[in-house]
Amino acid sequence: MNKKAFNFKDFMINYGVILIIVILVIFTGIKSPKFLSSSNLLNLLLNMSARLVIALGIAGCVITAGCDLSAGRIIGLGGCLAGILLQKADYANRFIEGGQPMNIFLAAIIVMLVCACFGAVTGSFIAFLSVPPFISTLAMMEIVYGLNLLVTNATPLGGYVKAYTDLASGRFLMIPYLVWIAIFIGVVSWFIFNMTRHGKYMYAIGANPQAAEVAGVPVKLTMVMIYAKAAAFYGLAGFMLGAKSGGASVNLGLGYEMEAIAACTIGGVSVTGGRGKVSSAVIGVAVFEFLKAALQFLGVNANAQWIALGVIIYIAISLDIRKYVAKK
Amino acid sequence: MYAENENWKPYYEEMDPEERKKLYEAIAGETEDDGAGAFRQELLQRRYADPKNPQRTVDNFLWNILILPGFLRPAFFIKPLAAREVKGVIRELLLEGAESFDEAKRSAAYWEYRNAARRYIATCHGPKYAKKVFGIMESNDEEKLTKTARDFIKMTVTIPKKFGLVREMEIFTDALKDEFLSTSPEAARAYRKASYEA
User: Fold this and answer.
1) Closest residue of A to B118, CA-based?
2) Between chains, do B63 and A324 touch, taking CB under 8 Å as contact?
3) Residue A301 to residue A309: CA distance in whole angstroms
4) Does A65 reach chain B within 8 Å, measured CB to CB?
5) Residue B47: partners with Cβ closer than 8 Å, 6 or more residues away
6) Nearest residue on chain A to B142, judged by CA atoms?
């Protein structure tokens, strides 16, 4: 086997999107020096934090050659649930009259557990009834949205306790708490992906589910756990976004699943399954957020930015499919 | 290089674990020890026994074939971790000290790994294998063969070279390569093509 020569076409297929966005970021930085200022970078990190948590959840599903379209609606559920549990006792429009706000850590755990239950249901449909992930998560997306509408009566929630909103404004070592939470989830995910049996099962299922089953991997249980863990992460992201915006509604997190899937794909998590790392999600989310910020700084119409993001998703997934399709 | 003992041929051709256990008992009881009897039994036990749950049916060799290509995944800064994992696979496959195996042991190991590789290849034709686009689209036969060939190149060439374990893994890589090439002329072509791409 000879040492492989540099192939420009392969390089562009693998890193083309990232390269174009890096050039765009450099161009924006030159044109508008404020773009690379520390305050803007911190702001970008803050925006990245919840999205990274979502992407890390979705990455697990994509590695098993699945996807999760329910992420956005579960984020909304997590945000609303956190809002209900953390409203001030004396808030005029309190959702539960006469109740007391909960400890924020306890509230976060409850939110994650409730969301994990929905993820476990989705995973059960995929694992035990062989419903394709696309359909199963689409159904769960509608169910969660409906439940959230019923529970909240489509009323936005606000009036949060200071400890909760401080989560977004507070800092440790100059870095916002939300970023620390994202770093913590990143480390936990890295550990799960690389150091645990569950992580190996996840890659094995993505690479060859039938071989995994024959080898003795508890495929069904692992699938349920992957979707439950992902939903727990979406719940946490909803909790983080609620703290950041100081309120929540059923539409919190709408469309975030597409951004997260696109970010994972840009970073290197393959939609064909079996491939992807925590760093893939980190790179993808960073690239996506830098792109959005660069477009803002370049004065691109806010509505037109959606088109740019759509084009990026289109290109990223097309290139990913191209990468692994047999050359005829 | 790896002599095939005619007495043990049915045992190495069978893929069902329960049938293989029965065949092992029958052949071992009827024939003289060829010098690899104890090692063959050790391979059998190591392959199908789950030390944590004896009731569970597993295939540890198939599992190791399945996870091996994934060790090329980690970033460079955790390469030592991946190297440790690959050495773990060598231990699991009872390949430690394989350079000093006598001919009988080498052959027993080789045919056992070929059997595991055959079982793995058998799973690479099903509808769930190599699904595309979030598991929605099924790959055609050519795409499946290409993916299998690429994985076999990783296992038989890239990983042993990358981790400096060519000699330790020789029996295993020979078995995997020979089994894959023996499946069809298309497989041999796909293997050569994947080798060139790598």
Assistant:
1) A211
2) no
3) 13
4) yes
5) B17, B59, B60, B61, B112, B116
6) A326
Mutation site for B-interface testing, chosen from A214, A223, A261 by largest number of B Cβ within 10 Å = A214
Q: Give me the amino acid identity at A143.
A: I
> Domain ranges in chain A?
18-322
Question: How is residue B173 written in tokens?
Answer: 């890589």
Helix/strand/coil for A206: helix
A18-322 fold:
ABC transporter involved in vitamin B12 uptake, BtuC (1.10.3470)
| Residue of chain A whose alpha carbon sits nearest to that of B154 | A1
HSE, CB side, 13 Å, CA atoms: give it for residue B112. 29
ipTM above 0.85, yes or no: yes
List the single residue in A66, A134, A216 with the smallest CB-CB distance to B56: A216
Q: Give the tens place of pLDDT for each residue, A251-279.
A: 998 989 988 988 888 888 888 888 888 98
**Bridge partners (DSSP) listed for residue A175:** A172
Comparing CB atoms, the residue among B58, B78, B198 nearest residue A1 is: B198
- Interval A149-177 mean pLDDT: 90
Interface residue B195 vs chain A (CB under 8 A) = yes
For residue range A39-52, list pLDDT tens digits in order: 888 989 999 999 99
Report how far Cα B147 is from the mean position of its chain's Cα atoms. Answer: 16
- Determine the distance in angstroms separating the CA of A66 from the nearest CA of chain B, rounded to an integer: 4
